[in-house]
Structures are given as structure tokens and as C-alpha cells.
């Protein structure tokens, strides 16, 4: 699930131009998650950095093949998985702690977890949208950067324990809504 706009100027690459702004934004914001997906498949953080750099070269060279609106991280992880396997073949003289089959299992598990995370995120967005406006506002205030319950209470002129009780009630409602939505295949 990406925020890529359907018309992100992808055709600009056909004339030899570089990646468009949306691609660069996705590319840069996904560096850390991509590194973290490579790390369990190699020996050391230095190896993960090396594989990431090789994967980045391929990703940037194939940017025109990325379909806007699709999952950028999944696309980049598929490229990184191939680069991990290449790295392992180049490093054959080193002791390989994991078989290629295990590397594939790790990559498949990461993909499944990403899909699960996307489903949970979509369910949460839906459930937050169903809250009363005042509850939505309280959640947004609490989870704004640098915010905490005491600060929100002060901003609203409410006792802190009242805000914490409201947040607890809202969280329980969201957990139950997400649980029902996931169990019902999207209904609720």
C-alpha cells in the first residue's frame, strides 16, 4: 500500500530522464525498512549495507518498471532478495549461516507480515473514521508528534485522568472494531 499518485509522471523516464519525485520520495522513505528486511538474510550489518547499496543501484536502474499505486516496499524487497542471493554467491568462500531455502522463507515471511500489517492499517483507518469526531480529535491530538496524555489534558483544560480514561475507552473500541473487521473479511 503506497501513497503513489496514479499519474506520477512515469513516462518522463522514457526520454532518458531520471526517477520522478514520487518515486524518489518512496525510495528514500523505504531505505530503513528495506535495510531491516535485508539484515536477517546476511551475516552482518556491513553485509546488509553492501546488499542495500547493490539493491539501490538495481532499484534506481529499474525505476520505470515500478507501477505507481502498488506496494513499493514489496517491489523493492523482491529486488533486494535477488541481491542477497547474488551477494551470497559472490561470498561463497565465507561460511554461510543460512541456506538459500531459509533466505526464501525469511523473505516470504516478511511479505506475509507486510500484507498482514497493511490489512491491520486499513482496518484501523476504517475504524478511526467511524469514531465520533470528538474521539477522532482526541486520538489525533494524543498521537501527534511530541504529544502525551498530560499535555493533551492541559491543552483541552481537562483533568489528566479523564483524558486517559477516554483514550482507554477509544483504544478498546478501536481494538474491537479492528478485530471484528479482520475476522469478518472487511465487514463492520
Description:
There is one protein chain. With 188 residues, the protein is mostly helical. The chain has two domains: 1-97, Rna Polymerase Sigma Factor, Chain: A, CATH 1.10.1740; 99-188, Arc Repressor Mutant, subunit A, CATH 1.10.10. It is 67% helix and 0% strand. The protein contains eight helices and no strands. The protein has helices spanning 21-29, 31-38, 45-61, 72-90, 100-130, 133-142, 149-156, 160-183. The radius of gyration is 21 Å and the shape is elongated. The two termini are 21 Å apart. Mean pLDDT is 83; it is low at 1-15.
List keywords for this structure.
188 residues; mainly alpha; Arc Repressor Mutant, subunit A; 2 domains; 8 helices; 67% helix
The CATH architecture of the largest domain would be Orthogonal Bundle
Rg, please? 21 Å
Q: Provide the CATH topology of the largest domain.
A: Rna Polymerase Sigma Factor, Chain: A
Count of separate DSSP helical elements: 8
**How many domains is the backbone divided into?**
2
List the helices and strands and how they pair.
Elements: H1 21-29, H2 31-38, H3 45-61, H4 72-90, H5 100-130, H6 133-142, H7 149-156, H8 160-183
Helix pairs in contact: 2-3, 2-4, 3-4, 4-5, 5-8, 6-8, 7-8
Brief summary of the model shown:
The chain has 188 residues and is mostly helical.
Amino acid at each position: 500500500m503506497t501513497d503513489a499518485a496514479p499519474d506520477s509522471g512515469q513516462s518522463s523516464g522514457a526520454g532518458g530522464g531520471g526517477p520522478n519525485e514520487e518515486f524518489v520520495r518512496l525510495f528514500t522513505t523505504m531505505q530503513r525498512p528495506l535495510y531491516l528486511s535485508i539484515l536477517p538474510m546476511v551475516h552482518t550489518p556491513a553485509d546488509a549495507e553492501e546488499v542495500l547499496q547493490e539493491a539501490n543501484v538495481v532499484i534506481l536502474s529499474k525505476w520505470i518498471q515500478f507501477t505507481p499505486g502498488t506496494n513499493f516496499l514489496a517491489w523493492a524487497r523482491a529486488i533486494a532478495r535477488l541481491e542477497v542471493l547474488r551477494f551470497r554467491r559472490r561470498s561463497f568462500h565465507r561460511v554461510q549461516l543460512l541456506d538459500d531455502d531459509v533466505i526464501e522463507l525469511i523473505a516470504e515471511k516478511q511479505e506475509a507480515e507486510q500484507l498482514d500489517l497493511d490489512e491491520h492499517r486499513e482496518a484501523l483507518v476504517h475504524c478511526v473514521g467511524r469514531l465520533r469526531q470528538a474521539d477522532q480529535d482526541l486520538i489525533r491530538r494524543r498521537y501527534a508528534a511530541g504529544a502525551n496524555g498530560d499535555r493533551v489534558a492541559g491543552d483541552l483544560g481537562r483533568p489528566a485522568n479523564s483524558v486517559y480514561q477516554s483514550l482507554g475507552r477509544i483504544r478498546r473500541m478501536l481494538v474491537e472494531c479492528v478485530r471484528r473487521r479482520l475476522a469478518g473479511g472487511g465487514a463492520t
